[in-house]
Amino acid sequence: MEISRGIYNTISHTAVTMNLVESMQNQSSSNSLLLNGYVIEPFLPEAYHHGDTDTAYPPNRNENIHPMNIYYAWTSESSDSIMLDAARQTAASLQQIASSNGILASAKYPNYAIFGTPIGDLYGENADRLHHIKNLVDPFNVMGLTGGFKFE
């Protein structure tokens, strides 16, 4: 069977708990239209401390952020809205679990974020600074012609 459609979404958390892992498994069993995957990336805390200057991501280097990659794949265009909703609902459910466990991170990992995610959810308090830099560097909005998240 050929897979021709897919979507990523994400939450970020600061620790891996058994409750979060079990919740991922529960999501897997309820959303199995064709293919789904959940990956926790346990980044080493030291990964965020290699530079002394401000960065776009993470917005706070003192928070050890572990991205979670939520992936769904399917074949039929007629299932698009079902699968996009499933990806959003899964992220919302897992985000609630992480929040109730006190491990929800302050920013989502931009590489896995679903379209329409607010810039502030990705870059936190850095969003305003990045918007200002974008206006200085790209006054004619050339980068606005591309895809992806936009600082507008």
UniProtKB/TrEMBL annotation:
Protein name: Berberine/berberine-like domain-containing protein
Lineage: Eukaryota, Fungi, Dikarya, Basidiomycota, Agaricomycotina
Classification via Gene3D superfamilies: 3.30.465.10, 3.40.462.20
InterPro entries in the record: FAD-bd_PCMH_sub2
